[in-house]
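Below is our example:

___
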Amino acid sequence: MTFSSQDLKFIQDSGRSAEEILKQFHYFETGFPFVQLVRPATLGDGIHKIEDQEMLSLLEQFSLMKEYYRIAKFVPASGAASRMFKDLYPYLDTTTAPLKSKIAHFMNSLSECAFFHDLEQVMMRDGYQLKEMVIREDYALILEYLLTEKGLNYGNLPKALLKFHTYGDETRTALEEHLVEAARYAQNNDHSCFLHFTVSPAHQQEFEKRVSEVLPAFEQKFSVKYHISFSVQHPSTDTLAAEMDNRPFYDDKGSLLFRPGGHGALIYNLNQLKFDVIFIKNIDNVQPEDKLEETIIYKKILAAYLMQVQTQIHHFLKKNEQGVVTSAEKEEMIQFVEKTLQLKKRTSQNLVDVLNRPIRVCGMVKNQGEPGGGPFWVKNSRGEEALQIVESAQIDMENDKQKVVFEKSTHFNPVDLVCSFKDFRGNYFNLHDYVDPDAGFISYKSYGNRKLKAMELPGLWNGAMSNWITLFVEVPLITFNPVKTVFDLIDR
């Protein structure tokens, strides 16, 4: 494949290199290699269960670690809410959609939704009574005011800015619930609280406006000083789309078409943060405040477990650098690698490389049939067994043996991570060095009436962190409470 001089200028002006684009583009021809599953990670074999005594010890350690570590929270928040309402869109046209019982139930439960009063107000502005429209079953009208610019425009906003919960006369968006959570477990010893949200450029101003409106009240309530920052997915991480026959895709103006490379591109945003401990959690996974306690406890436990393991790693590496490691200490190091880190078949010669990497502790919940990724033992490119979070798109489901392994998974990835990427000398790792470029996948999209192939970069918590030290810890199901569809907002 060659690019025209016009293409090359377009690529250069967008901050990309032709070499990198060509390197990525060959995956349309070859496809991405499938992950080689060995077995599911289970309790006692890849997933650590925190017993009561260890829990008390870790909570105590967390209280102490806040004196020495700078903590932050990272929240991918650019996701649009359109998929959340996909089951409602057909009912904007009542002539084509047969009524389903769950739609009727939702309409009769609107008063339980945090956005009910706002919806009521925008409809009243135009002379409509929401409750009366529900009785008349004029669902198309109600949805027009809920989903489109005629009313709340919820179908076009990011999930972060939707109202999720009600507290008497107060309502909170998903964004605000993350502020509340952070005050409870990501507050530093000086009462500072750092949160970083990745947002879409089109909505950053709305995020900043909402934050400025609510911050004073939350700072007073929780006695914290918030430091909120935002970043967008950098255009240089967009990937070139392909025609169905794997030629480069050009838009209607004759320019190469680049598309966002998926949440894996956010490793570039994460790499900019300079903290000792960073919590990562999805924007839609938030509990009402009165149900938060267990979530807070386990966030602290995951962070303390991370720092306990990292402290031991740094101790080994410092001793090794000083050249004072005895044979007994080297054996202790090997036992630590094999038992605590659960890394098999390692030799003493490569222990430094094994230990000197970014580290993450991932909470895992028991699988309740949720779609998506989970914890597995996989065989890496060096033929070694390693723990990874694997998405279904990375697995060859045509291979019966691989499918069986996938279906035997006992746990699910709720995106509940705590990570650190400082080395034993106090320097930050370059996270791009630990991405597995082979862990992306191809998806099928459209541009107007034209079909295209899109390339998704290695996901943030699977391929983008593939070469980190990975530890799995079981967390209770109650800590996983996502809003994937609008129906999840009822009876919370």
About this structure: The CA atoms of residues 387 and 393 lie 17 Å apart. The mean pLDDT is 92. Residues 83-156 form one domain. The first helix runs from residue 5 to 13.
